[in-house]
Design goal:
The protein is built from nine helices and five strands; from the N terminus they run H-H-H-H-H-H-E-E-H-E-H-E-E-H. By secondary structure, it is α+β, with helices and mostly antiparallel strands.
Amino acid sequence: MKLKEMPVKERPRERLFTVGKENLSDVEILSLIFRTGFKDGNAKDLAINILNEIKSIRKLATINKEALLKIKGIGGAKATSLLAAVELGKRIYAISDNDTKLKLNNSKKIYDNNKHLFIDKDQEYFYCLYLNNKKELIERKLLFMGTNNRSIVHPREIFKEAYLLSASSIVCMHNHPSGDVMPSNDDIVFTKALIDIGKLQQIPLVDHLIFGKDSYYSFFEDSDLMR
């Protein structure tokens, strides 16, 4: 049965207007994104295929085109639509990279504005935030992606970008895929090196945050290294 052949009150689009978007099921939301079905079923059948395959709606946060194309009924156009919708959702809750008025002057604010970057990541990602002299964001850069238990990053790359952007200070961020936010010995040694180099270069490291599943560790808040 095509969606237009369903009783009007059961169609996802009509239900969105009558019961509200927040009351739609995952299947209905996905069917609205796809709009049309495939050879063997309608848009809701296609949505069910996807959810059966990925098991959890949260998996869409990290799914790629190749994985989508393996699902029955998904072609290039529908994969593109879904990936675009997922990315739009991420950006709504993300900071704007061009918002130079965003002041990042405390660890909690940094965490809240960047935690979306690390959702469901199974390897370490290392980012730097480059700030002006008012602690306003100039640019956020992903410098390295590592293995499932460490990232490989060199201080010269961090400070090279700082010079290119004329940054006044730096915040570093990386995640621990294990979910444990406590710094490793390597994290402590590396952060100490960045602090020392920053003092010499007069571009101080103002914080280094480690992101876990639902929490963070701030060297500025919890360590004597930065005091």
